[in-house]
Amino acid sequence: MDRYVYLDQNILSDLRSRKLEAPDKSNYARIKELCLRDDVLVVYSDTHLDEINQITVQAYKDEHIVLLKELGATYIIPISTELSAKCPELVWEDYLGNIQDNERMGVNTVLELQDLINRKFAGLPVEQSFHELNDQLKNALTNMLENSVEQFERLDPEDIKPDGEEIMKQTLAHVQSQINDISEMVAFEVPEDQQLGPAPLKELDRLQELDIENKPPNDVVPLLDELFSVENPDYSWSDYFDNTVHNQIARCYSLMNWAGYYSDDFTRTTNRGDRFRASNNDLMHVRNAAGATFLVSNDGAFIKKAEACYSHLKVPTVVCNGAQLIEYL
Does this model's pTM top 0.70? Predict the structure, then answer.
């Protein structure tokens, strides 16, 4: 039976041929050797591609794509989570093409503004107010949908079968309804004296009394959920998100991060680069790896949060470090 191995970006990077030449990389050479076995399939996601694209040296980007090809790695298609038969070079070409399409259609601007709003909520320095960000987001969303309408209207109804004209009419009416809804979007109302970010949560006496980092992994999320429901009795996350395993993983991971359970330093500006983005990438790796046989990382804090997520949600994926993977395989 095939075993599906999802490597985090750091381990994947260390499997490049140039990196394996270092004297302290014998374990990584063994991991690569095992990943080349016929009964092992390395899988990768759009988060890997995002992180590769963040590399500033083109030659290093190329090394990662070459490595994925060497490993015979298989791409996890976003949303559907199906495995793609495309080779990594073609997946990479599609990814870069999609970025260009998103830029032309205005999607990237929407994503950038949503990212700024998330950073502001996390307590990171963002110059714009929530009202200014809301106005910019409304304009960007409207522009994106109007671009979509323009593209859609160029289609020939005859190419949409059956009932092409009716489908186009209904689709355009739906998009126009969305544009109207966007005009009613209201900015978040945050009192001036409200401290943003995870600090107020971490300072709660009840949270500190939980001593959460010393609890068994399967107890962590239920304890935090109980605390959160007491402090915010009127909030229900299901009012805002579909109840899927992937959304639940994102919720649990974020809750642990904000509560200080082996949390990332995502609210600090450091010389280690964009920690907020790195933390979001870690969350997405845990989310994307659900369903793989192994999720592999040498980051201890990452492993702790992934284990707590999976044990609470009964996801069978085994979370392990590189040395443990060698033993398992």
Answer: yes
